[in-house]
Each structure stands twice: as structure tokens, then as C-alpha cells.
């Protein structure tokens, strides 16, 4: 399976009818600076999603129309990062409300949620809260352990063991690197499954 086209549709700061138009949605969620936008760009082989080395850059829900080689259409939904927000932007509380109103509102359905964690840090307290919320709301989700290229072999094994302990056999874990593209095919396969 390959992604053949990506187009930015719009950025949302509140509910929008586009989220209920019947196009299957793949949501990307994670802490600020975890590499969500870079991961989306790697997946789509584009620079559609704005990246920044400054945490809290994404302050709205960004919707991308993605097509695959079977001509299926999906929305990639890039959510703001949780846990950090620039003081001049929406503010941490508003960002949290925006994420919750999309992810945990029964009006909206995601085909899949991609929860991205920083493999160099592991699951933080905020990641664990999100993980538990996804389970409580019976979301179909996968965990992407991003930035694995920055780990030594022993650190990698330690982090994967910790993640597997937490996720069990229920939630797939995909080790991923934007730099080396490791995990790219596995992630695309999981997303469109």
C-alpha cells in the first residue's frame, strides 16, 4: 500500500462539519515535539505538515486529504501536541479541550488513532493519561515509538520491553524513525488495515 497524494484541507479550532462527512479519519496524537508533523510528512512523502523545532507549534486540528494507490480517500488528522503550548497561542487548557472534543466526542469516529511517543523518553505521565483515555473510550489505536535512531541497542530493547509490558498483545507498537525510515511500511500497513 502506498500513499499517492496529500492535500492540506483546513485547520480547525472548534467543531466542523468536515469531521462528520463520512471520509475515514486517521488521527495522530502525541506530546509536543514528539515528531508528529515530521512523521506525517514521512508517511506522505510530502512537506504538507508544518514542522518546527519549537514545541507547541501546532495549535489547531489540521486536516489533510490523503489518497492511497487503491484510490481510497482518508483524512489524516494532525492534533496539537499535549503538554505544552506557547503562551501567545491557545494555551495549554484550550489545547487539551480541543484534543478531547475531537478524540473523545461520540459524534466523531476515527478509523484509527496513531499515538506517538518519544522512544528516547518513554511513556511520560501525560502519555499514560492519553493511553488510558484511548482505552477507556475503546479507540482502535496503535503506538508509534518515534526517534528510535537516537537510541543505543540496549536503550532500544529496554524501551520496547517497557512499552510491551504496558500495551500487552492488544495494541501494536511500531518502532519508527523519520531519519532512517525504519517502520515506515509497517506503519502504513497498520494505518490502512
List keywords for this structure.
Rossmann fold; globular; 193 residues; alpha/beta; seven-stranded mixed β-sheet
Summarize the entry for a quick read.
This protein has five helices and seven strands. With about 190 residues, it is α/β, with parallel strands linked by helices. The chain has one domain: Rossmann fold.
| Second-tier CATH architecture | 3-Layer(aba) Sandwich
Low-pLDDT segments, ≥5 res: 52-57, 85-89
Radius of gyration: 16 Å
Measured by DSSP, the beta-strand proportion falls in 15-25%
Strand order of the largest sheet: 1-3-4-2-5-6-7
Report on the architecture of this protein.
By secondary structure, the protein is of the alpha/beta class. It has a single domain, classed as 3-Layer(aba) Sandwich (Rossmann fold), CATH 3.40.50. A seven-stranded mixed sheet has the order 1-3-4-2-5-6-7, with helices on both faces. Helix 3 links the parallel strand 5 and strand 6. The longest helix has 15 residues. It starts with a strand and ends with a helix.
Amino acid at each position: 500500500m502506498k500513499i499517492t497524494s496529500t492535500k492540506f484541507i483546513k485547520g480547525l479550532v472548534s467543531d466542523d462539519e468536515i469531521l462528520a462527512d463520512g471520509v475515514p479519519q486517521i488521527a495522530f496524537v502525541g506530546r509536543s515535539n514528539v515528531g508528529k508533523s515530521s512523521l506525517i510528512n514521512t508517511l506522505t512523502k510530502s512537506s504538507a505538515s508544518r514542522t518546527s523545532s519549537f514545541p507547541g507549534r501546532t495549535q489547531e486540528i489540521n486536516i489533510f486529504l490523503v489518497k492511497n494507490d487503491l484510490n481510497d480517500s482518508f483524512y489524516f488528522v494532525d492534533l496539537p501536541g499535549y503538554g505544552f503550548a506557547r503562551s501567545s497561542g491557545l494555551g495549554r487548557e484550550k489545547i487539551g479541550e480541543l484534543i478531547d472534543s475531537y478524540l473523545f466526542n461520540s459524534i466523531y469516529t476515527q478509523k484509527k488513532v496513531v499515538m506517538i511517543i518519544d522512544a528516547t523518553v518513554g511513556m511520560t505521565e501525560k502519555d499514560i493519561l492519553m493511553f488510558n483515555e484511548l482505552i477507556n473510550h475503546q479507540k482502535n489505536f496503535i503506538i508509534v515509538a518515534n526517534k528510535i535512531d537516537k537510541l543505543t541497542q540496549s536503550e532500544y530493547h529496554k524501551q520496547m520491553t517497557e512499552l510491551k509490558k504496558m500495551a500487552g498483545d492488544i495494541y501494536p507498537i511500531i518502532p519508527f524513525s523519520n531519519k532512517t525510515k525504519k517502520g515506515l511500511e509497517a506503519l502504513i500497513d497498520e494505518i490502512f488495515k
